[in-house]
Amino acid sequence: MAHVSLKNLVKNYEDTPAVRGIDLDIPDKQFVVLVGPSGCGKTTTLRMIAGLEDITAGEVVIGEDVVNDVPAKDRNIAMVFQNYALYPHMTVHENMSFGLRLKKVPKAEINRRVDDAARILGLADLLNRKPKQLSGGQRQRVAMGRAIVREPKVFLFDEPLSNLDAKLRVQMRTEIKKIHQKVRTTTVYVTHDQVEAMTLADRVVVMNGGRIEQVGAPNELYHRPETKFVAGFIGSPAMNMIPCRLEEAAGALRMHVDGIALPVPKEREARYRPHLRSEKLVCGLRPEHLFEQRPHLEPGQQPFEAKPEVVEPMGNQTLVFFPLNGIDVCANVDPGCGAEPGKPLRLVADLRHLHLIDDSTGRVL
Amino acid sequence: MRPSLSSVPQNLSPGGVLAGKPAKTGSMKGDRRRALFWSYFFLVLFAIFFLTPPIYMMITSLKSSAEIGAITNPWFVYAPTLENYTALLGSEQYLTFFKNSAIVSLVVVVITMLISIPAAFALARMKFWGSATLGMGIFLTYLIPETLLFIPLFKIFAWIQDMTGIEVMNHYWVLMFIYPTLTVPFCTWIMIGYFASVPKELDEAALIDGAGYLQMLTKIFIPVALPGIIAATIFAFTVSWADFLYPMAFTTSADQLVLPAGIVTILIRGDVYAWGQIMAACLLGALPPLLIYAFLMDYYIAGLTAGATKG
What we know:
The complex is a heterodimer of chains A (365) and B (311). By secondary structure, chain A is an alpha+beta fold.
């Protein structure tokens, strides 16, 4: 068990920067997920923690030690790879015990640890099988077992669920969470899937272009994104981003979107007032904060008329898409509200959950 | 007698032969039939072409000298006899050739593997300055024919003999040092391809598990790339078993000859050819590689194709 810190970590490939200075503290036992689009530097960061990639500048600290020059095998970490990377010629037992056998751990101890891990992962009956006789999910579990038996200070996961089908992915996601609750080892997990990130993490690190955009608990990122990128990346379906402008009329601030005037909640007026003349404002509103007309409206909820172009029933909810300021806006309405393509629909915007974004800086105001 | 790559059966995909012709609706079956016809046509043609010599040798080896000399149907044996075989197997000289060949070939295989496997591993996996150029260089050396090499090599060994006083000429063991010049480049090259096809994550997993480069090689790469190594082993064995030019150049005494050189030395005296015995000797000599091929054929093909796609 150990905490991990990254201090101004930089990685350049020849002249191309991949990671541009990352500072991150991961306390002991925490499950941290690095998430971002491909090419954002998340895997490179993980591989630098693992010792599989040279560090251009900065420091990686595991426990009390700076490990920049410590080879991977001496960092006491374990890694689970996207394509499992099981040794094809070894049985499940041999795969899991390989590291321990190299370290000359006594046989009885090896067997105890492998049996423990196999019990946790439900692999007890498969110990004598070869990887090719296993399904994708089982292989993934063996890969995790190989990490667990080593009782490392840190677990590193590199997109471990990407090769599984959708259903199995959800199932394995839950299992990984369960295992972390049992084993409580500091974990760094890389994924491009924001749902995975939200569901698994104690803390999510959103990365973009080799930098950290925002660090926070899943709900914090969801409700209080600091940048346009985080606002758009976290949440599915994604947040609507509609160009808008601010106006003052009769002492109250209003937001104009394609002819619709939406009153800004009173408590935010002071915050937004400096941007009154700004040309590049974007109104960020999540689909679930655009819903059908209800009999009773609370303050901050503003009705308006929309003309749906596409209606996507999902069972428990229906997604409605309508054009606004040249952008397809998505609303999340009740399946019973009778939304139909082409038929005007009364919608409500819940402006208490508005995120006003300054597009020139990319910051949420 | 290098095993030619073209003789390895390729997977002919249906329609592959005729790919590019405009396909008519519902002609998949006809396409496939035509493709199969041509596949069989050429396979049978090549089978006949390559099997005729050994069959002819087999027929001739069962004839007495008198029958070979007589004007009869050369493709038929009227009075089959095993006298050629018994004469050879009773001849101490022939058995000595066999023994020399076996020792040389086995040692060459061992030397080749000891050099090629680490070399291929280093070139495929450990990025170092000039590794790509070295890999290409190794392959280029394979392209220089032995007919070009044997005179310079002879000079080199003669020079070594002069300088050190160690008598290296006219000993069968000198072949153990010469054959690897043929086997090491090619074996290294096919194994580079094979090692390169092992997923990179496997070495990274091993690295994190605590393996050094040597353990990575012995515990992961060699077992995983075993088909490729077997293919290389067969190749090295066949080359050193069948090579003709080098033993003719480097060995002369009857007790130092290996099989290919020995057969022509003792069974051709002046202009008298002991045809029956020559044929029998060659067939017996072809037996060991044949047996090895038969047992390891599946591995051999898997090894060659895997090396081919990634090499």
